Amino acid sequence: PCTDDSVGGTVLLCYNAKTGHVLWRRNYSYPKTPQHKFNSFATSTPTVDAERVYLTWGNDMTCMLLALTHRGDDVWERNLGPLQSQHGFGFTPILVDDKIIVQNEQLGSSSLAAFDAKTGAPKWQTPRKSGVKTAYSTPCLHTPEGGEPQLVLTSQAGGVYALSPEDGKEIWRLPNVFDKRTVASPVIGDGLVFGSGGAGSKADRLIAVRMPTAKSRKPELAYEILTRKAPYVPTSLIYGGHIFAVSDTGVASCHDLASGQEKWMKKLDASGGFFGSPVCANGVISCISKAGDVAIFNASSSYKAYDSVRLGEESYATPSIANDRMYLRTARKIYCLGN
Fold first, then answer.
1. Residue 22, class by beta-carbon neighbours within 10 Å (0-12 exposed, 13-18 middle, 19+ buried)?
2. CA–CA gap between residue 320 and residue 317 (Å, rounded)
3. Closest CA relative to residue 283, chosen from 302, 262, 297
4. What is the dihedral of CA 21, 24, 30, 34, to 10 degrees?
5. Fewer Cβ within 10 Å of end Cβ, the chain: N or C?
6. Looking at residue 46, what is its pLDDT?
7. CB proximity list for 37: less than 8 A, separation 6 or greater
8. What span, in angstroms and rounded, lies between the C-alpha atoms of 57 and 331?
9. How deeply is 304 buried, as exposed, middle or buried, from its count of CB atoms within 10 A (0-12, 13-18, 19+)?
10. Rounded distance, CA 174 to CA 154, Å?
11. Distance between CA 319 and CA 175 in Å, rounded?
C-alpha cells in the first residue's frame, strides 16, 4: 500500500509483477489524525494466499482488517477498534493455515487475534497487557521438531513468548527482557529466538532466547550481542549458521549463530541510516537506507562489500524477493531487478 498523508488515507495498489503496469487500485479515506514524522498511514505490509489479499490500516479512531480478491473486490472486513500509540499504526497481518492473525499490542485495549481467512469470522482472541509502549514486531511461525506449530512474539509488555496458532493459548514465555518497545520482528534459527527493543534511533541490545525443548521445558536467555550497534527498526537475518544485523545507524555485523561470537562489524557505504531490513539472495545481502542507497555485501563470516546502488530517493521499505526477481521500493517508485 501507499499513503495519502494530505487527507489521511491508504491506497492499495496491484501491479503486474513482470511489467510494472497498475492493474487496479483501492482508496481508503478517513479523517486525518496526527502521525509521527517517520510513519505513514500505510506502514503495514499486505499478505496474500491463492484466493485473497489481506490488508490492515488504521489511525487513532479505527483500525481495519480487510480481505479482497486478487481483482480488488471486497470480501470481508473487521473493525479492530481504536488505536492509542505514540507513533501511529503499523500492525502487519500474517497468514497461518486458514487464519489471519494480527498482533495488536498498544497503549489501549490490546490482544492477539485470529480470524477465518475465508469469512473474517473471529476464531480466537488472547488479551495482552495494555498501557505499555506499542509493539510493531510481526509474529513468527515456528514448528519445533516433533512438536506443534507456535506463534513466537516479542513485545515490551510480554517479553519473548509463544502462543498456539490453533487456539491462542500461551505455550511458554520469558518475561521482562525488553525495557523499550519492539519494532524489529523476531527471527528463529538453531533453536534460538532473536529480538531487540529500542527507542529513538537505537536498540539496547540484540538478545538470543533458547526456546524450550522436550528436555528443557523453560526458555532461557542464551546470550546478548551488539549492546551499542543493535538493530531497532530493521529485522535481523539468519543465513548459513550466522546472524546478520544492520543497525539503524548503518552498522552491519555478523555473529556466529550458536555462540554469538562476533565475526565482523562494519559501517556500510550508505547514507541516511536504515529502517528497511536486510534480505538475502544467492548468498548476497541487500538493504536499502533511508536515503535510498542499496548496500550490498556477502552473507558470510568474511566481510566483502560491493558497490552501493544510489536510487536517489528516500526509502523506508524492505526489499522483496519472488520468482528470481527483487523488488525495491522508494517513496515514488518501484524497481524490479532480475532476469
1. exposed
2. 9
3. 297
4. -20
5. C
6. 93
7. none
8. 18
9. exposed
10. 10
11. 32
Are 17 and 47 a contacting pair, CB within 8 Å?
no
Residues 299/285, Cβ–Cβ less than 8 Å: yes
What span, in angstroms and rounded, lies between the C-alpha atoms of 84 and 131? 9
Burial label, 218 (beta-carbon count in 10 A; 0-12, 13-18, 19+): exposed
**In this predicted structure, what is the pLDDT of residue 81?**
86
In the 8-state DSSP scheme, what is residue 7? T
Neighbour tally for 59: CB within 10 Å: 21
Which one-letter amino acid corresponds to residue 187? Answer: V
Strands 74-81 and 94-96: unpaired
Locate 307 and state its grid cell: 558497490
Based on the number of CB atoms within 10 Å of its own CB, is 265 exposed (0-12), middle (13-18) or buried (19 or more)? Answer: middle
pLDDT per residue as tens digits for the range 219-234: 999 999 987 789 999 9
Instruction: Tell me if residue 124 falls in helix, strand or coil.
Output: strand
Kind and range of the H or E element at 244?
strand 242-246
d(CA 47, CA 97): 13
Rounded Cα distance between 147 and 211, Å, is 12
* Cell numbers given for 216: 528443557
Tell me the DSSP string of 102-122. EEE-SSSSEEEEEEETTT--E
pLDDT digits (tens, 9 = 90+) for 176-222: 999 888 999 999 999 999 999 888 777 888 999 999 987 778 999 99
How far apart CA 137 and CA 234 sit, in angstroms, is 10
On whether the CB atoms of residues 52 and 69 are closer than 8 A, the answer is yes
Considering 1-15, 35-49, 78-92, 110-124, the range whose residues carry the highest mean pLDDT is 110-124
- Euclidean distance between CA atoms 129 and 139, whole angstroms: 16
208, 221 Cβ separation under 8 angstroms: yes
| Residue at 147: amino acid letter | G
